[in-house]
Amino acid sequence: MLTRVHLASDEDWEGADVTYELILEAGVYQFRRFVRDQHQNRVDVGEINIPTVNGKPLDYIPFILVSHEGLRPEHVTPPFLSLCKVAISHFKNSCDREHAIFLTASPTPWIAGSIPANKVPHQIGAGAVWTLPEGTEVGMLEFTGSGVAAMKEIMEEKSETMISLGARMLSSTVNRNETIDTATQRTRSELALLHGVVVSVEAGLKGRLSGLPFLLCERERVPFYDANGRQELTKRRREIVRADHLPAMSYADLAIVTRNLMMDPSIAGRAYLVVDSSGVGRAFCDLLDTKSVQHTRVQMVAGENETETTERGRTFNNVGRTRLLSALNSAIHTGDLSIGNFEARDLMRQELESFEADVGASGRVKIEGGTKFGHADLAVSAALALWLSDHRSVGAHIGQVPLKGYW
Predict the structure, then answer these.
(1) 4-20: buried (b, 16+ CB within 10 Å) or exposed (e) per residue?
(2) Is the pLDDT of residue 292 over 60?
(3) How far out from the chain centre does Cα 402 lie?
(4) Alpha-carbon gap, residue 321 to 299, rounded angstroms
(5) Any idea what the Cα angle at residue 57 is, between residues 374 and 35, rounded to 5°?
(6) What pTM value is reported for the model?
(7) CATH number of 211-402
(8) Which residue spans within 203-349 are E strands per DSSP?
C-alpha cells in the first residue's frame, strides 16, 4: 500500500521551493507542504489538509505510479533516456562543428615579403587596391583538414541512432512462445516503449475506476383520438429504467459492449446513444466510430452555455455542466423525469442528494457532488440522457404514417 508521496511544485515559500507531501496517517489521507531550510531540515508550511468525499476522508492516497514497465513503485529506466542522451551528444557535436566552421571556413588573405609600414594594406574587398613591393607573395588561407568533415560523419551516425531509437518506441510486438524471464528481458529492450506506457496508463485507470456508468432512459408519448376524432398525443413520459456500472475494462472492449447493446433487439433502431466526449471520452467516441455505432457527442464545459462545434467532420455539443444538472433537477422536481425501480436506484438517489449549489461572487452558480463510490457518474449520465431526449426524437409511428411536429 502506498503510504507517502513527495511531489515537486512550482510554489515557493519565502524564497524556498515547496514540496507537496501526500501521506496516509492513521488510515486517513492528508495533504501537507514543507520546505528545506539552509541546513536542509524540513520545515512544514501552511495547514494540513484532509480531503473528503461526501463528507468522509479518504483511506488511500489517490496517486498512481505509472511507467512503461508497470504500476509498481520501483526504479525503472526512463523510456526516452537513451534517445535523450544521444540527442544531447548530437547537440554538443553540432556546437563544436559550428564553432570550428566559424574559425576556419572563411578564407583569410595573407601577404609574405618586406613591406614598408606605409604600404601595409588596411582594407580588403573589390574596392581596395593593394600596392606592394616587387617580390611580395599574396594568397588566401583556407582550411583543408578533415577534422570538420569527421564531425559531420559523427553527427550523421548519431542521427541514424536517434532514428533507430525512435522507431523502436513505435514498433509493434511479435507474439512468440517464451519464458517469463525472457519476456521480461525483451520487454525492457525490444518492446515498443510507447505501447508499454499506454498499457500501463490503461491499467492504472482500470485500477482506479470502480466501474463505467451507463443508463437507460425510456421516453414515450402515446397517441389517442379525442372526442372530436382528432389525433393527439398524451403527455410525454420519461423514466430512468436502468442504471448501473459496467465492470472495469479497456475502452476497446467497452466499444464492443456498447455496439452489442445498441444492436439488442429490444432497442435496436428505436434508441439513441449519447456519450460524454470530454477528456478521454473523445478517444472512446473515435472507437465507437470504428465500430459503426451512431452516437451523439457531448462535451461538458464550465458555465451554463450550449454551443456546437465541428472537428474532423464530427459534431461536438458543448454543454455547460451546470446547465445539464440544473435541467435534471428541474425535471425530477416537476415530474417530467421519474426514476424507476432498479438495483442501483438507491445509489443514484445518494448521488442526486450529494449535489450542492454554490453561488460565486460573480453570481454564477456552481453545482458539485459525489459519493465515496464515484463522482456522481450515474446522475451525470441521467442528465445527459435528459438532454438528448430534448434534442433527438426516436419517432413514434401509427400504422405506416409517422406523426409530425412532436418531440
Answers:
(1) eeeeeeeeeeeeeebbe
(2) yes
(3) 44
(4) 9
(5) 115
(6) 0.49
(7) 3.30.420.240
(8) 212-220, 223-225, 231-233, 237-246, 274-276, 296-301, 306-311, 314-320, 338-339
